[in-house]
């Protein structure tokens, strides 16, 4: 069967993914509900999706949820579970900016031979669920024994997004996480990363990120990165913006190349193994709780001042 382009209409008004009457197919394509290999578009409707949410056996080629979709996906306890090779959230082609979905919960699956590439362009500013972002994601890797393993990527340009933050036991598995911006470098994107997230590299060129998980590499070029919890970071680089390092986890190598790395937001004992201060980089810390295993290497003189 040729690939179909499917669009959610919600015409059956039962909010059920598995109801054929909620879908229309492009052109002469056979009607039905989405199957593996389809492209799915959800846009220009307030009819939400809250029924038959377990679609984990389906791997879409493309899932697009535009900002013009103002219904809800998932409920307080459940995500829409589905595989997808590419996911695009919050695109907008109107001169105005629609409100978006106040509850958008996706549990995305990737396998060894089908990675998941997720881009968030925008989200709603308000959430149905208090103290939680309107867009909440899980990314689960299903090991099929193939080699190499698939590598999921998450990019957030604007909006409020939570990765494995709905429940303390939630997990996600990715290779890289990126945040950028569209118009407001320091404020467009806000991403919360839960403690159960496993990934390799975080690269920030904008926005505000709260990181509660461990990371191999974390790079802050603009905006604010705040670390909490107990996750260790092998290499932390700040070339601009601010890093508020409040995690009790060890930082292996700190590169303070620009901006500010601030260790004073927590009084918990912490360790940095090796620290380099270069260029305009600044490091702020309380010597009573911070341990630098090796002296800070600045390549020159260091000026000390008391807070």
Please, could you describe this protein's structure?
This protein is mainly beta and 307 residues long. The chain is built from no helices and 23 strands. The strands form 2 sheets. The chain has a 13-stranded parallel β-barrel. The mean pLDDT is 94.
In short:
This protein has strands spanning about 5-10, 25, 40, 55-65, 80-90, 105-110, 115-120, 135-140, 155, 160-165, 170-175, 175-180, 190-195, 195-200, 200-205, 210, 215-220, 225, 235-245, 250-260, 270-275, 280-285, 290. It is mainly β and about 300 residues long.
Q: So what's the overall shape? A: elongated
Number-wise, the strands total 23
Q: What is the percent of helical residues?
A: under 10%
Nearest-integer average pLDDT: 94
The chain-level structural class is mainly beta
Low-confidence stretches: none
SSE order, one letter for each helix or strand: EEEEEEEEEEEEEEEEEEEEEEE
| Major sheet characteristics | 13 strands, parallel, barrel
Give the strand content: 35-45%
Strand order of the largest sheet: 5-6-8-10-13-16-18-19-17-15-12-9-7
Distance between the termini: 68 Å
Number of domains: 2
Q: Helix segment count? A: 0
Radius of gyration: 21 Å
Q: Topology of this protein?
A:
Elements: E1 5-8, E2 23-25, E3 39-42, E4 54-65, E5 80-89, E6 104-111, E7 117-120, E8 135-142, E9 153-156, E10 159-163, E11 172-173, E12 176-179, E13 189-193, E14 197-198, E15 201-204, E16 208-211, E17 215-220, E18 224-227, E19 233-245, E20 251-262, E21 270-277, E22 282-284, E23 290-292
Parallel strand pairs: 1-3, 3-4, 4-5, 5-6, 5-7, 6-8, 7-9, 8-10, 9-12, 10-13, 11-14, 12-15, 13-16, 15-17, 16-18, 17-19, 18-19, 19-20, 20-21, 20-22, 21-23
Antiparallel strand pairs: 1-2
